[in-house]
Specification:
The complex is a heterodimer.
Chain A: H1 3-13, H2 25-47, H3 69-78, H4 97-103, H5 105-132, H6 136-150, H7 153-164, H8 168-194, H9 198-205, H10 210-221, H11 224-246, H12 258-269, H13 275-304
Chain B: E1 6-17, E2 20-31, E3 35-40, H1 46-52, E4 62-70, E5 73-74, H2 80-89, E6 91-94, H3 98-101, H4 108-119, H5 124-137, H6 143-147, H7 156-168, E7 174-178, H8 186-203, E8 206-210, H9 214-220, E9 223-228, E10 231-237, H10 238-243, H11 248-261, E11 275-287, E12 294-306, E13 310-314, H12 321-328, E14 336-341, E15 344-345, H13 351-360, E16 361-364, H14 378-389, H15 394-407, H16 424-437, E17 442-446, H17 454-471, E18 474-478, H18 482-488, E19 491-496, E20 499-505, H19 506-511, H20 516-524, H21 565-569, E21 575-576, E22 582-583, H22 586-589
Parallel strand pairs in B: 3-8, 3-9, 6-7, 7-8, 13-18, 13-19, 16-17, 17-18
Antiparallel strand pairs in B: 1-2, 1-4, 4-5, 9-10, 11-12, 11-14, 14-15, 19-20, 20-22, 21-22
Helix pairs in contact in B: 4-5, 4-7, 5-7, 7-8, 8-20, 11-17, 11-18, 14-15, 14-16, 15-16, 16-17
The chains are: A mainly alpha, B alpha/beta.
Chain lengths: 305, 600
């Protein structure tokens, strides 16, 4: 009848701690690409060999053949060249494509990140409210986000920017409007299950206010889906930013921006001058891919718990 | 029965999940016509063992060593095709969740017929006949109609029976049943197990019953094997095991049962005359969406709980006992009635007044994993009420949390841990420590033991008794496990379809239940004592109806063996009996049915 026995039983029930997770190569790849993009956003324009917004004297110069790259790299590092080579060639205005490609993340990533953070904050808060209080007002909110989501994303963004004007702030706002409904929906779904959990009920039973239950218990436990989604959303926001520039509804030239570069280079492709468009295109694909892979890996980790 | 050649024999079986061995040399034999109970803790590897006996391991687990002998052949070395032929034909398994195991898109009869045809020669017509016959054998009424039903049209008990019928369809030589009745109510559990035992006897099959329930082992098994730490620590005839378990784990498991079978009812000296909680006419109806009907979960419940007293609330699922606990604490707003705590009206309290009341009455939930915030440390969980209701400093809260952990028999070293990785018994103690943090006088315990392993249940019940003695707490103990109710409660209320049908002392209700429903509930209870096996049962017909469109008269009338036309005509009222208990039955009140003696 002693409690000692019971206590021994209690410790015996403790499950063995989880074994260490095996490293996930996809996760590592995603982290590497995203880290590179962030690094370039921070210092890209500063480390670029040429000023990305100042024309050189060479127009439409083709990139050096791949075979010459090792030699050129060596020469650049030893300082044997009078000026750095145009790795990716130059465009019709004489801008160095390489410098512009590595300077662009500052624009693209900043817009995508800002839009994502804003929509994450609004979406999660509204989703919390919508999941917590199911009444006519939140029903209206959900229908409003249905309407937002039922328009083609790209066209909505174009119209929004066209109406509000072509500035970075407006692009961010347009993206934010488009992405907030996604976060509302994701968070609301999670809140709907979390708010019925025992620990929320227990907090209420011990005299916690509804607001405290919502903010202290439900919210932190409902964040995971939105956070995972945000990695994917950033990737798509980059794509959309570039897309808007491509159709002329994005940032103004000569700001180094991938979509704008593809757009201005597109006319030359038919003349065989592929480099002003292809290199920024590869950069976009890689970055979007990196964020998507990271999101995927995060999701699997979360599900595995 | 025993002593013949084993049907299946496992020798030194090792199964592991990456990094964690689960079975470490399991040796077990099942003989012809024998029912063996495999017992063990929640994480002891019982289900892993059940699968391993069929040569299976759930990914990423692997069978590392050992042999499983069937007909002199080692299953683990057979080619996959031969193994498949043996599985289902000679070895069949019944899993825990019957609804998940039945294909929702195929009629039940066809599923049973498919198993038979996969392993026996015969035409489709013969198979269909066979399926109906199997359904009849496992005790399903009107098997012709049920054979053409889909899984969702069957109740839980019915689906479990259909699964047993499917397993037995090909007349296997060994049936492995993994907790076949753990999701069912006691009255249904007894019916299903009776039918299982009879079918096994008729077909000459051997059976391995994986279970945590001592009552099931005591009443249905010939032999019991106890799995602990990956090995069988005890493997003996049931009567010997219950008389004198050899291994410390077995003794731990049986401790409460052995104490309860003596005269160790809850000591009455903690009970006072001071009324703490008074419930009058408490009702709760849930509206049904898209209909103007309601689910009448609780209908006019009257209860009092005195300081230092434990009131048990028993009944099958759907009887409304959990709703009583929740409306009592205003976790649900009652539709009618009032609750008073020391004279203060709980039902009318708003805002700050309600929060202040909640400090004095607390609840412990059924699932300890769900009732603690998984992201928080144990310290923060236990100290949450302190953060809400007191102005203690962080250091003082920490000290108090450590004290509380010691109070519930846990080491203060757990303070820095998170819920993940802690066992259900430890987590339930943490939930109790949290409930006690604000020093309440009254606790609602909502099935606090139902997900716990037997040994943890014993420890928890003892803890609750000790806390009551030390702190003078009053409990409302909601449970369907009658053994724990008997051990912990002073008085007990039996609920059926939202109504209290009998309310009396534990001794009155358990030894001589008066209401026909209480009688059959008590009779269906499987006493964890092999000596009482085969005592007569008066099972109720069918299953508990849904609490929608309830009849005007007696709610049990359609299932009651004593029902007369007059029972269905008038609403039954709780009537005081000469011995002080309350019974809601006109025939009992008029002395036409006498209290039935139940061997206790």
């Amino acid at each position: 009848m002693s409690l000692g026995g019971a206590e021994a039983a209690v410790t015996a029930h403790s499950k063995p701690s989880r074994t260490r997770r095996r490293p996930d190569p996809l996760f590592a790849l995603g982290v590497a690409i995203v880290a590179a993009a962030v690094f370039l956003a921070l210092v890209g324009p500063e480390i670029a060999p040429y000023d990305p917004t100042e024309a050189t004297l060479f127009y439409n110069e083709a990139p050096p053949p791949l075979a010459d790259w090792p030699g050129l790299l060596l020469a650049t590092l030893t300082g044997d060249l009078p000026q750095p080579p145009h790795w990716f060639g130059t465009d019709a205005s004489g801008f160095d494509v390489f410098s512009r490609v590595i300077a662009a993340p500052r624009t693209d990533l900043a817009i995508a990140l800002a839009a994502n953070v804003l929509s994450l904050v609004f979406g999660v808060l509204l989703g919390l409210v919508a999941g917590y209080y199911t009444n006519w007002a939140t029903a209206l909110l959900m229908r409003a986000s249905d309407v937002m989501q039922s328009f083609p994303v790209f066209i909505s963004a174009m119209i929004l920017v066209a109406l509000a004007g072509r500035s970075t702030g407006n692009i961010v706002l347009a993206l934010c409007l488009l992405y907030t409904p996604i976060y509302i929906r994701l968070t609301r779904a999670e809140v709907l299950t979390q708010r019925k959990r025992g620990f929320v009920e227990a907090a209420r039973a011990m005299g916690s206010t509804e607001l405290r239950c919502a903010l202290v218990h439900v919210l932190p436990n409902s964040l995971a889906p939105a956070l995972i989604q945000s990695s994917v959303t950033i990737g798509f926001a980059i794509l959309l930013t570039a897309g808007l520039s491509f159709v002329g509804a994005g940032v103004r030239p000569p700001t180094p921006e991938w979509g704008l570069m593809i757009s201005t280079g597109a006319n030359q492709i038919i003349l065989g001058e592929w480099w002003p468009s292809v290199f920024p295109g590869i950069a976009i694909s890689l970055t979007v891919f990196g964020f998507a892979v990271l999101g995927n890996a995060l999701e699997r980790r979360y599900d595995g718990n | 029965m025993t002593g013949t050649e084993p049907v299946l024999e496992a020798r030194d079986l090792h199964v592991s999940y990456p990094g964690t061995p689960v079975l470490r040399g399991l040796t077990l034999a099942v003989r012809r016509r024998e029912i063996v109970g495999l017992m063990g803790d929640a994480a002891s590897g019982k289900s892993t063992a059940a699968l391993a006996l069929m040569g299976l391991a759930r990914a990423p687990g692997t069978i590392d060593a050992g042999e499983v002998l069937f007909d002199g052949r080692n299953l683990l070395e057979l080619p996959e095709a031969e193994l498949r032929a043996i599985r289902g034909r000679d070895l069949a398994i019944v899993v825990q969740n019957p609804r998940a195991a039945l294909n929702p898109m195929t009629r039940v009869g066809r599923q049973i017929a498919a198993v038979w045809r996969a392993h026996r020669e015969g035409t489709g017509g013969e198979a269909a006949v066979r399926a109906v016959e199997m359904l009849r054998r496992v005790g399903i009424n009107d098997p012709e109609r049920r054979a053409s039903a889909f899984a969702h049209e069957l109740s839980g008990g019915m689906a479990q029976r259909a699964l047993i019928a499917m397993a037995l369809a090909a007349e296997p030589r060994l049936l492995i049943a993994d907790e076949p009745t753990s999701g069912l109510d006691v009255t249904i559990q007894a019916q299903v197990l009776d039918d299982l035992a009879r079918s096994v006897a008729e077909t000459g099959t051997a059976a391995l019953l994986v279970t945590q329930d001592l009552g099931v082992v005591a009443n249905y098994c010939d032999r019991v094997a106890v799995l602990h730490d990956g090995v069988i620590v005890e493997d003996r005839p049931v009567a010997d095991f219950f008389a004198a378990p050899e291994h410390p784990y077995g003794r731990e498991v049986l401790r409460l049962q052995r104490a309860a079978s003596g005269a160790a009812l809850a000591p009455a000296d903690t009970v006072t005359d001071e009324t703490l909680v008074e419930v009058r006419g408490l009702s709760k109806a849930f509206p049904i969406r898209g209909s103007d009907k309601v689910v009448q979960a609780v209908d006019g419940a009257d209860l009092t709980v005195r300081r230092g007293e434990t009131l048990g609330l028993v009944g099958e699922s759907g009887s409304g006992k959990t709703t009583v606990g929740r409306t009592l604490l205003r976790l649900e707003a009652p539709t009618a009635g009032e609750v008073r705590f020391r004279g203060d009206d709980v039902t009318a309290a708003r805002g700050g007044a309600l929060r202040a009341l909640r400090r004095r009455m607390q609840i412990v939930f059924q699932d300890p994993y769900d009732s603690v915030n998984p992201r928080w440390t144990v310290e923060r969980i236990v100290a949450e009420p302190l953060a809400l209701h007191t102005k203690l400093t962080a250091a003082a809260r920490r000290a108090r949390a450590a004290e509380l952990l010691e109070l519930v028999g846990l080491s203060p070293e757990l303070l820095g841990r998170r819920p993940r990785g802690l066992g259900s018994g430890a987590l339930q103690r943490i939930a109790i420590a949290r409930a006690l943090a604000a020093e309440p006088e009254f606790l609602v315990l909502d099935e606090p033991t139902s997900v716990l392993a037997p040994a943890a249940v014993n420890g928890l019940i003892e803890l609750l008794r000790r806390l009551q003695a030390e702190l003078g707490l009053a409990y409302l103990f909601i449970s369907h496990d009658l053994t724990t109710v008997k051990f912990l409660c002073h008085r007990v209320a039996v609920m059926y379809l939202g109504e209290i049908v009998e309310l009396g002392t534990v001794r009155q209700v358990f030894e001589r239940p008066a209401h026909p429903y209480a009688q059959s509930l008590l009779a269906a209870h499987l006493e964890p004592d092999p000596a009482q096996r085969g005592r007569p049962r008066t099972p109720l017909e069918g299953e508990i109806p849904s609490p929608v469109d309830l009849p005007v008269g007696c709610r049990l009338a359609s299932r009651c063996p004593h029902a007369e036309p007059a029972c269905a005509a008038a609403r039954q009222v709780l009537t005081p009996m000469p011995d002080g208990r309350l019974v809601r039955c006109r025939r009992v009140a008029e002395g036409e049915i006498s209290a039935e003696e139940v061997a206790a």
